[in-house]
Amino acid sequence: MAPSVEVSKAPQDFVSASAKVERDGQVREELKETQSFPVGPGEKLYFYQQHFSGPGLDFDIPTAAAVIGYIKEMDDVYGDNASDAPSDRVTEFFSGADNINDGYVWLVPVYTETKAEAATSFDILIRSRPIEGLKNLAKGPDGDYRYIRAVHDTDNNESAIMLTLLRSNEPLSSGEVLSRLGYVWDGGYRNIDEKRGGSFLYFAWGTFKY
Q1: Which DSSP letter does residue 115 get?
Q2: CA 201, 204, 210 angle in degrees (round to 5)?
């Protein structure tokens, strides 16, 4: 009987504590856990609802899922003031300013459900002349032309599924950018606001490998 007593001690303690909370009516504890599982379009991920029961307790643990699409390319949106910021814009990782060049320009991802169309990486291009077919991040006619060009490498089995910006008051190497963001990110190779003064703004992406 000893092993069974030891195994059942944890749920007994839980039930006891729960009963005490109910009697006193003073403390209520809730636990909410969110987990992320990248799932490409056309792929499947199965969820099983968990159930917990015990003396005086009987409840389900609900599970919800959201679909994540592939990122095909980048677009940018111009505005006249901060209220024009699109809700689906790329945000700064630490909730800092996410507008480009301290102006009213924001990055917006273009999604696809076809993984063959998904970007595998991105290039930051800064040129003195415009590049046909790409949309300039620099609002207005003055200064260099700035672009974020999606790369589609058919030999690369990774596809971009998330984007972020990192703003810094000092220049950072790609390694320093990624160390601040975490191991799931790539990019951070070049300051988008290069030659403009002010803060330094880096662009990074996360991929799903299939």
Answers
A1: G
A2: 175
Alpha-carbon gap, residue 12 to 54, rounded angstroms: 9
* C-beta of residue 13 within 8 angstroms of C-beta of residue 41: no
Write phi, then psi, for 21 (nearest 5 degrees).
-60, -40
- Predicted confidence (pLDDT) per residue in 137-163, tens digit: 887 656 789 999 999 999 999 999 999
- pTM of the entire predicted model: 0.68
Residue 90 neighbours by CB distance under 10 Å:
23
Supply 75's token pair: 């677009």
* pLDDT tens string 50-95: 666 667 666 666 555 555 689 999 999 999 999 999 999 999 999 9
Q: How many CB atoms lie within 10 A of CB 32?
A: 4
Dihedrals phi, psi of 154, to nearest 5 degrees: -70, -15
Strands (E), the chain: 50-54, 57-61, 70-78, 105-112, 121-127, 145-151, 158-168, 185-191, 200-209
